[in-house]
Amino acid sequence: RVIKSNESDKSKINQIVSFINEYGGIEYSKKKMVELRDQAFGILEELPSSNRTYKMQLKQLVNFVIDRDI
């Protein structure tokens, strides 16, 4: 409800962040990202080697998104 209401009440946002942290939401999300990345990289390896540059660029992009600090 808080998110849908478009309110910018910092105390409500802090409650949501605390809830996510308390129940391991961030850790779960990171673990899931790595799992999906590994699956995607496996699929990329099945592409012909002539696409090596594209595969490398896609991998770099995915790793950037996963590894960046926000």
Topology:
Elements (H helix, E strand, L loop, with lengths): L9 H13 L2 H21 L6 H16 L3
Helix pairs in contact: 2-3
Features:
70 residues; 0% strand; 3 helices; mainly alpha
Computed Rg: 18 Å
Q: Average pLDDT across residues?
A: 87
Instruction: Specify the biggest β-sheet.
Output: none
Uncertain residue segments: none
General description of the model:
By secondary structure, the chain is mostly helical. It is elongated, with a radius of gyration of 18 Å. The two termini are 24 Å apart. The model has no long low-confidence stretch (mean pLDDT 87).
Short précis:
The chain is mostly helical and 70 residues long. The chain is built from 3 helices and no strands.
